[in-house]
């Protein structure tokens, strides 16, 4: 018989821990899975290592390089996922539950890798422009930059998604250039430890970029500094306790919390039994009760239905819940596993007992333990339990007590305003769903419920086929809600990276701002040389390289020819009489002609390193171009992004060019950025 493994912490580049402290047991059969270590962690050493070793290594890389590492890491882990599934099974999770945790975690890494690649520069400074002119002549401007905070990110995670919870916080922090110290919830820390071991074995991260704490966090929070960040997921009580840590308050250390949430799903009054939306609602409630045995921060705790439909909804849910096979997920056909621990089982039973007072049980048993299932041994199983509250405006418990398991409460409403008032009684939730077939009801619901929710899903028959579901946070959408849900924000695309960067307003001349931001700011000095910018390779192009073109007088023939080629005979270009009555008082050239003519002025036509023009940004036609006006273009390198090299492409970089088209009076006619791919020399 092999000895029970003692989990280890990864601190300052060393795995620490050999003597056992706390037993961690399988949620399925109560057998010992692992033990935490008894050795105390020196958090001074951990933080010092993060600041002195990891931080400089992370900042020696740029956003693009860190994004590439995230992708390599996701690929590495993906190839070793079966080891993680085997370990995850001890948490009571079914394969689909573990999929959310494991592959959902990898998916988040992949998503941040590609968002970083697409949206962040090949430097460590993000220009949050555009710069604003603060004086009359444009030589004093103001803008915002985001820079790495030069601190450490502490992540405290919940027991329910030990991998996803860790990776969804790690990905944006790493991208931002922050070393992370991760403290998983102890109950399922063996999964997080297995994942961190793989990450360390990959050799892909700089030493200390990710440290792991098994067990308590000791005096870690007391040691944090002004540049650090804490991100927490767990219970509202723990969040309330930790966010008032005197050191965090004194030093204004941001504390981002994602805590309890009594999420709701509303069946709108327009939906009748027999409508596809009726079945969608029932399915969604059933899925959220049974997935991960209801231990999802996003699970539906409150199903709000019209009083007239409650019997039909209850009957449909009863029928579906009865079909869920509960037991050891390794048994074929089992759809719902166990809660994560016996402690969790006791906690859910206690909260169910409180919730059941004064409410009917529509499905399940009063204690939740009764019909446990197959192969359950001494596991932490809990039967799905559906309650019915007929007076939810007066019953406060159903809006306040979260049984973090397969427990949900049906509650009835009279009119739709009452349904929305019930939704708000959750006092801030991560997510809510509205199931309706009427756009006006969807609009009314979102307008009122958005103030109380981090995310809202509007579900109808059109969206159903592709819907990702009520309970799935997505990397590109914000996760986190106001009030009881903790008041924090995670994910939401690059927003999450910005949470780990520091924003600073900068005032300076355009030339200074160009140097500071790494992006050409109009009015700044430009460099003109004999070589056309389009004849330069990526490495040779500098921000500020510029070309002032020759001029071209726009004739009536140009307008007529352009109309003929494009088929655009809009009156403004072709009807002298109608054009006279407009604000321009005369016929003017097509905006797209000006754009095309400008390209004719600035391109260097022979084959060269510019491989493609893949789009335009920020296009504005500022002043009209009339017949007889003379236009000229200035093309200036605004931004260059080195995304590294990909094996499937010739070596290349992204160059954005600032284009200004002016008329003979020096007035701006058109303004835009063109985006090109430019070959590298190598
Ligand atoms: P806790 O709040 O107890 O724990 C969350 C995390 O905080 C764990 O890593 C825990 O570590 C840590 N922690 C607890 N106390 C401290 C402390 N004093 N200092 C530093 N870290 C601390 O939540 P649980 O995970 O036990 O879950 C309890 C309840 O929280 C659930 O029943 C549910 O209601 C809610 N919950 C909400 C979630 C959400 O996403 N909204 C997710 C999970 C749970 P340790 O495990 O070592 O105690």
From TrEMBL:
Domain of life of the source: Bacteria
Keyword Ligase annotated: no
Keyword set includes DNA repair: no
Gene3D superfamilies registered for this protein in UniProt: Aldehyde Dehydrogenase, Chain A, domain 1, Aldehyde Dehydrogenase, Chain A, domain 2, Hotdog Thioesterase
Start and end residues of each MaoC-like domain: 543-643
Aldehyde dehydrogenase domain segment(s): 37-445
InterPro entries: Ald_DH/histidinol_DH, Ald_DH_C, Ald_DH_N, Aldehyde_DH_dom, HotDog_dom_sf, MaoC-like_dom, PaaN-DH
Keywords: Oxidoreductase
Protein name as it appears in the record: Phenylacetic acid degradation bifunctional protein PaaZ
Organism expressing this protein natively: Roseateles chitinivorans
